[in-house]
Description:
Layout: H1 5-19, H2 23-30, H3 34-41, E1 49-53, H4 59-69, E2 75-80, H5 87-91, H6 94-105, E3 111-119, H7 120-126, E4 132-133, E5 139-145, E6 154-157, E7 159-160, E8 174-179, E9 182-185, H8 187-192, E10 193-199, H9 213-216
Parallel strand pairs: 1-2, 2-3, 3-5, 4-7, 5-8, 6-9, 8-10
Helix pairs in contact: 4-6
Amino acid sequence: MNTHPGLFRDIVHNSFHLGYYSSDALIQLSHVCRLWRQILHDCADFWTTIRIDFAKRDPSSKAAFHIERAGRKLLDLEIWYDESHTMEWVRSWQSDVVRLRLVLRGCMDRWESFQIHAYSDTINLLLPICAGHAPKLKRLDIQAYDDDETSSNRLLVPLLPRAGSDHQPDYASISVAIEQYIPRFATLFGLGITSLAIDIDFGWNKDPILTSNDLIHIY
């Protein structure tokens, strides 16, 4: 019995919507055969998770391609540096960081989650240009690597949740996890945080400027 091509396409489409809807599963399904890969590549959901590895070539072009193919879908951003790379190696990629941040700034209204695991120099270079509203953001995960474990890092998170009004505040529900930084949030962003985890390992006693008072001003 012959199967209508449209029916087969619907079956493949629905296979991940019903129970396999994760970025890893989509990639695995796309490896089944060329036809499955073509069907999934035509689906906007396939492109909504953007994984950036700076060890690979031209990360900004990859991000721009995903953003375009995802249509108007919400985006999950994952940016990684391998911790084994030296700071000298990381600094050689700073031009790529600058190009990437300009690409990401143009789609902040579609960020649903933002994760970055990188050296603090890279984080400090990337985040400031992304200042502004991220109205759909639900998860923020920032992990800094540092050669100097005694350094104290302070991070201004320049993101804002969806805007409300004085009479009807519309604060987002945001989960935040930050390592190796003392974060500072805008008031509206702080009011939207419903889960906050901060992990700090550097030497408190070796930095007389860094005190517990910093924690009071997190919000």
